[in-house]
Specification:
Elements: H1 2-5, H2 12-30, H3 35-63, H4 72-90, H5 97-122, H6 128-131, H7 155-158, E1 170-174, E2 188-192, E3 206-210, H8 220-232, E4 239-242, E5 257-258, E6 262-263, H9 264-276, E7 288-293, H10 295-306, E8 313-317, H11 328-334, H12 340-345, H13 348-354, E9 363-369, H14 373-388, E10 392-398, H15 405-422
Parallel strand pairs: 3-4, 3-7, 7-8, 8-9, 9-10
Antiparallel strand pairs: 1-2, 2-4, 5-6
Helix pairs in contact: 2-5, 3-4, 4-5, 8-15, 10-13
Amino acid sequence: MTSILELRIDEPWLIATLCVASLGAVGLLLVRPRASRWLLRATVAMGTGAAIAVVFALFARKANLFGMPLPWQAIAWGTVGSAAVGLAIANVWGASWRRRLLALLSVPLFLLTTTLGINAYYGLGPTVGSFLHIQINRPISVPTGVDGTDGAIPLYRSWQPPADMPATGEQGTIEIPATRSGFAARTAGIYKPPAARTAHPPRLPLVIMMMGQPGDPDPQYIAKILDAQAQKNKGLAPYVLVVDQLGDPNRDPVCADSASYGNVETYVTRDVVDFARTLPVQQIPSQWTIVGYSNGGGCAFKYAAQHPDIWGNLLSVSGEIVPGSEHPESTIADVFGGSAAAFEAAKPTHILSARTVAYPDEWALFTAGQNDPAYIDQARHAAAAAATAGWNVDSYVVPGAGHVVDALEGGLAEGFARLYPRLGLSAP
């Protein structure tokens, strides 16, 4: 079962093969006797299928079904796929049994091609398991205990890697007890950097990360970026815990404790933090970073604003400026007991402007993709609010990216390129 879940479904050769097979099926379905009369009916059927896809995309935009407009690439895949399905349906009537059989077999082919094409564009469900939001349990051993003190000398100067240090870090899963919160979180992901895989590892910085919604606590994206940085910097990288702020990929607790969704805020800010302090990581806020992508970015912004005593650094990648802002009415009703004032008080920008929290040395970067204008605006607005509160903050636009894997990897790469000197992992 595990091997099936690990199968890649985003490989270019697979998508190309499905496209060729679909085009072949379309060609066979188009060829019929009485061509002029049939081609008119086929054109109407394909046009109807395409129109349905376009109408759905417009409805999704107006109703904000996905928290953001569908990108044109997804609309294009959906339109072409729906047109092909329309053609197949038109072949069911008034045709031989062979043609009806071909039409019926073509429908799942067209749907599979469309689904995997859209999925490959988004890039966030590369395997069968990740596409279905099924986690594969891969526990890895992590030493506990924090003997020693935080080094006064930056690690890029004091650390000398042994000759047998692995070239890359290790990814796996780890259970984080929900002792205080009782929150039903999914198993956390963990990234253990190359320097931590040696016989006498240094105490390293720590990152706590949250992914988007729907999404999974999967460390592969940040591991890819940190492995690249570690290769340039003596194997040095932060430990990473990728934690679940959802409980279920189809729910959005908007980063807050509630009777409806459980105590997610207590889970991240207490349970996860308590667990992280047992790891061989440095213990001062300037060495702790909270990172979030999309939905997770909104949570990261909120928690950083509330807890500069825990996290001295924030990296929000295509993050929401206000958790729950895409569905405010249900958020107020389900999470905040119908109190609009409580919803307002939980907004990160409100926490910053309230001036009830001191920020002695808070660093932040807000990123968004170049082709994601709504999130560019949110990133710049968030950066401005943080700057007013005294943070060392900037925003960054990822060239050519949207709101998918290109924005995620581009934002992480830029963020850690800037963070490495602050964390003492590279020279200033």
